[in-house]
Every structure is written in structure tokens, then in C-alpha cells.
Amino acid sequence: MRTSLKLLVLLAIAVAAALLLRDSSGYFMVVTGDERRTVSLAAGLVFIVIAFFVFYLVFRLIGFLMDAPTRIRTWNQRRHTRKDYDLLERGWVELLEGRSSPAEKDLTRLLNRSRDSGRQALASLAAAKAAHNQARYAERDALLLTAQSKAEGNPRMQDAAATIRAEMLLEQGESKQALALLEPLAKAGGANQDHIQKLLLRGYKQIGNQDKLLDVARTLTKKGAIDDFEGRRLIEHAGAAVMKATTRDSWANTWKSFSSAEKTMPLIALAAAEKAQAAGHADTAGQILETSLRNQIDARLLNAYVQCPQEQVNARLTKAQLWLEKDENNPDLLNALGFLCLAAQLWGQAERYLTRSLKLREDPRTHSLLGALYDRLGKPTEAVKHWRFASASISMLPVVAGEKYLPAADTRMDPDGPPDRKRNDAQAEAEAEQGDAAPAKAIYARRPETDEEYFDSAPIPGIRAEELNEKP
């Protein structure tokens, strides 16, 4: 569009100049020495325009010839750059496809032929990744050293080299070396901070540093850099581990460091309640568990909640009944109520809660509690039945139908003495029938009659039977 407008403007100017010069009586006179040459104004203007274009083309040609070496150099550099980019692109595509061996070959070729230090550093890092995927760690380390040397003077490339090296060390299980590279990068606050924090999270998880793992998980979850469910799971497990590692005197300060949302997480609340219980603060332990249970009914928390001193049973039973009004068909909550009723010696309510829990879900713990209840009530048959169900559920034993007890063993054909009694009697009768015939070689050594009850049919260690038979 712009070109068309330019042509229209030039055409209008040409038409206007032609109309003006058509009726013009002006002329050009060129004086050279004694000669005078006169031409019309139109011819003179045309000559001037043609001369201008001729001189312009001549000077452009001269400039082009003088700039030819630079142009050739630039063209050659562009050609090399294009080939470098082609190799780099092909190597990265092969690496992303999982073809590490051809990727390493192309990237190493790029490293050897490229004249740009930045592309050499990038090719070295990618080739190191390909070598790492093939478990060729010696070549990987050599390529990483090359990348670091090529990245001198380029801070971003140096950070990238350190990050990639740390990531590969984490995959290899060298967590301490990886963290030594990552922690300075995290303090510097580079552009890839989220990625570094994720690598730190992985490293702290490998070495079991729960304190730092908790801090990094909080940061990433708050920024939305990781999935919310994964972040909450990491915070819960790390927080519980930190809570368990506290001493009897410092657990309260650690508990205060958690946020309100973190205090309701089941594992953290359970660990804090255990610490409070161990420190002799049963009321505090109950409050911690109640806060978490109001947010979410959890079987682990209920099992800890029902383990309380006798003077707190009624209060906890009342609160558990309020929770049941909101969730009437929760088998774990019914089981906990049955336990508390047993502790409070409310036999009827305990039976009702436990029976309702069994209707909703078969559970060995519920059967055990019912067995204990019926044993207290003097119903041994019912108690034994529920204890059997509980034992079969826990031990994965088959339920035998039919007889309640195994039948007595038939001992009518059993010997009335030691295992070899019949055999010795049969051998003595055979020898008596043979009379003066040569006695057959005995297999076992003979003992006096008084020791027959303790006779062992096995040969005496270290003595061969032939030696015993040859004795007079």
C-alpha cells in the first residue's frame, strides 16, 4: 500500500513537471571555453536527472566493492551461525525425544565447530545432560567443566550451569553436593528462583532435613509454584516430623510457630498432642485434637482422643456426641464413642454405638471392643465370637465352618513307649528265631535295657555302625 502511494505521488509530480515544461520557453546554456551549447529547459532537466542516477549508481558500485571483504565476512559468519543453530536445534530435539546418544554426538560436534562461547557453553550443558542420561558420569563431568570455562563472564550462563549440575546430582543421589550448589543460588535470588526452590525441596527431602523442607514447602505453596494438595501434604509430613523431634520443654514454642491452618492438619495435631500428653498436659492435648477434629474427622485423631485420663472421659464423650449429630454414619466416630462409653462403664450405649459401627463397616477393632464388652457383661459365647472375628481379620486366618473344636486324635495304634520300642521288639524276636545263625549286622548301637526309654534311633555322632558291630 505504501509503495502504491509513492508511485502515485511520483507519477503526479512527473505529470505536473511535464505540463509546466511543455509551454516553457526557458533554456540551459553550457559554456565551455569558447564554445556555447544551449539546450531547452526540459532537455536540461532530463539530462540532470539521468546524470544524478548515473553518478549514484557509480558511487554505489564503488562502495559495494570497497565493502566487499566486510560483506563476505558477515555472510560467512551468518552461514556458520545458521549451521550452529541447526545443530543445536537438532541436538535439543533428539534430547527431548529421549535419543541421548545421537543428541550427544550432534551437541559435541557443535561444541567443537562453533566460534561463539555462549553457544559452546549451551552445547556443553546439553551434551552433559545427554551423557548423564546414559550414566556416563565421567564424560558428563568433563562437559560440565567445559561449560563452566566457556561461561566465564556470563553470569546467567554460570547460574544455568550450576543449576543443571545440581539437578543431575540430585538424580544421581548426591544431595549434599547438589545443595552446596543450590543454596548460594537461592540466596542470590536469580531469575529461576522457583525452579531452584523446587530442587532445594527435593534435596532436603532426600537428606531428611525437615526444618528446611518445611520452610521451602511453605514458600512454594504460598506462591502457587506447586500443586496445593502436594504442598499441604509436604507441610503436614514435615511439620509432624519437626514436632516429633522437639524436646519436652521446647514443643510449645514449636507448636506456636505453626499457622492456624497447619495446626488443624491431622499429623501435626497428632504429634503435638503426643508431646503435650508426654509433658503431662492432658487438657492441652485434648484441645489440640478437638481443634483438628472440628475441621476434619480423622480416625487417627479419634484413636488418640479416646486415650485420656478417667476424669476426662465424660467431657470428651459429650463433645464426640455433638460431632455425631453432624455425621451420623461415620464408623470411626461411632467406634470412638463406643470406646469412651466402655471407659465410662455405659454398657448399653457402648453396645449400641459399636453395633451401629459394625453395620457400616467390618472392623477388627470394633469386634475386639464388643468382645471386651460382652466379657464384662458375662456373655462368654458372644465375646469369643467377636474375638474370633477380630483375630481372623488381623491374622488373615480362614473361618472354619462346622465343628467348633477339633475332634480328639485316635491314639489306639500309637506305641506305648518310645518311638523305637516296636522296632526293637521285632528285631529281638527275629534274632531268637534264627537261633545259632550268624547275627545280622545291627544298624544302630545297642544300649542297656535300663536306658531303653531314652534310646535315640539316630547313630552316635563320630562312631560308625560297622565299628560297633565288630566289637566282641
UniProtKB/TrEMBL annotation:
Pathway(s) of this molecule: Porphyrin-containing compound metabolism; protoheme biosynthesis
Q: Where is this region: Disordered?
A: 409-472
**What's the chief localization of this chain?**
membrane
Instruction: Tell me if Transmembrane is a UniProt keyword of this record.
Output: yes
List the Pfam families: HemY_N (PF07219)
Coiled-coil segments on the chain, per record: none
Compartment list: Cell inner membrane
UniProt lists compositionally biased (Basic and acidic residues) regions at 411-426
Cited InterPro entries: Heme_biosyn_assoc_TPR_pro, HemY_N, TPR-like_helical_dom_sf
Give the signal peptide, or none: none
Q: Which residues cross the membrane?
A: 38-59
- Keywords tagged on the record: Cell inner membrane, Cell membrane, Membrane, Porphyrin biosynthesis, Transmembrane, Transmembrane helix
Ranges where the HemY N-terminal domain occurs: 26-134
Q: Name one GO cellular component term.
A: plasma membrane
User: Which Gene3D superfamilies does this chain map to?
Assistant: Tetratricopeptide repeat domain
Name the Gene Ontology biological process terms: heme metabolic process; porphyrin-containing compound biosynthetic process
Membrane topology qualifier: Multi-pass membrane protein
Q: Could you confirm whether the keyword Cell inner membrane appears in this record?
A: yes
Q: Which domain of life is it from?
A: Bacteria
The protein's role, per its UniProt record:
Involved in a late step of protoheme IX synthesis.
Q: What is the protein's name according to its record?
A: HemY
**What organism does the record attribute this protein to?**
Advenella kashmirensis W13003
What is this organism's lineage?
Bacteria, Pseudomonadati, Pseudomonadota, Betaproteobacteria, Burkholderiales
